[in-house]
Write a structure and sequence with these properties.
By secondary structure, the protein is of the alpha/beta class. Helices cover about 40% and strands about 15% of the residues. It contains ten helices and eleven strands. The strands form three sheets. The chain has a six-stranded parallel beta sheet with strand order 1-11-8-7-5-6, with helices on both faces. Bound molecules: guanine.
């Protein structure tokens, strides 16, 4: 069994980006710039956005944060997006989800300039992904693909079971794994909350991507020996032993499942770190594309 170390992969990829930024500076060029919009005071969203900004700083990207109140009118957010779309110094724009209930998420995502949509959530980028055209790939599934590539894991012809059909993780993951390319070429089953006999699908799987958000859901008796297990879960659970008052739990019962796997990602230290790295890669690609216009 090998643990897929998000820290090692992300550090390696971030070092490459860091070097690219040094070269840009030597040439007197501006550096890539990511702008994030954060609405309200959702603790998890605050943590994620703070981490995205810190990672930008770590590798020398410019970042900016637009903070808006929970109860703002949708039009205020729209104005901010238009401003960032028109700002030639901004390469990537992300609106941290979820949004407050008065705001129409799909409408907002569709307003982001697709060439700056580093989350890959815009219908144009989603459409390109489905067609196998080059596009911004949503960061979590992209991060998982980068991990498979880094560890040179053979996925061709394998049965991959993706649990969870969200637009952010499960659905794009199922599309990526089914593509006709290296580190993909899987036969994919996309399972979700209405799937009957979920356990029987899991037991058949060569690769399981667990993205359902139920801590410890995947147990040892639900997997085939030798399976590759990718844990996307990042649920906060109360933990009085931690200074923050919570700890982060994955969707996999790691201690019981790990000994049976060929490869497994830990939580924390697995997919989460790759998500941010993939966002940085998307931002760098947005910068390159915009500078070659
Ligand atoms: N909320 C949870 N994951 C994500 C993500 O990848 N991007 C954005 N914008 N919001 C999120």
């Amino acid at each position: 069994m090998q643990i897929l170390e998000g820290k090692i992969v992300s550090e390696s990829l971030k070092n490459i980006l860091k070097e690219e930024v040094i070269q840009l500076k030597i040439k007197g060029k501006r550096v890539p710039h990511l702008a994030a919009i954060l609405i309200g005071e959702n603790g998890a969203s605050e943590t994620y956005v703070a981490s995205k900004i810190k990672n930008c700083e770590d590798i020398g990207f410019k970042s900016s944060l637009v903070r808006l109140e929970e109860n703002i009118d949708e039009s205020i957010l729209i104005d901010e997006i238009i401003k960032l779309n028109n700002d030639v110094t901004v390469d990537g724009i992300l609106v941290q989800l979820p949004l407050p209930k008065q705001i129409n998420e799909q409408k907002i995502i569709s307003l982001i300039d697709p060439s700056k949509d580093v989350d890959g959530f815009h219908p144009i980028n989603m459409g390109k992904l489905v067609l196998g055209e080059s596009s911004f790939i949503p960061a979590t599934p992209y991060g998982i693909m980068l991990m498979l590539e880094y560890y040179n894991i053979n996925t061709s012809g394998k049965h991959a079971v993706v649990i969870g059909r969200s637009n952010i993780v499960g659905r794009p993951m199922s599309i990526l794994l089914s593509q006709q390319k290296q580190y993909a070429n899987c036969t994919v089953t996309l399972c979700h909350s209405r799937t009957e006999n979920l356990v029987s699908y899991c037991k058949e799987a060569d690769i399981i991507v667990a993205a359902l958000g139920i801590p410890g859901f995947l147990k040892a008796d639900m997997i085939k020996p030798g399976a590759i297990v990718i844990d996307v879960g990042i649920t906060r659970v109360e933990d009085s032993s931690k200074k923050s008052g919570f700890s982060i739990k994955g969707d996999v019962d790691f201690n019981a499942v790990a000994p049976l796997c060929s490869y497994i990602t830990p939580v924390p230290g697995g997919v989460g770190l790759m998500t941010i790295t993939a966002l940085l890669k998307n931002t760098y690609n947005a910068y390159l594309q915009r500078n070659s216009l």
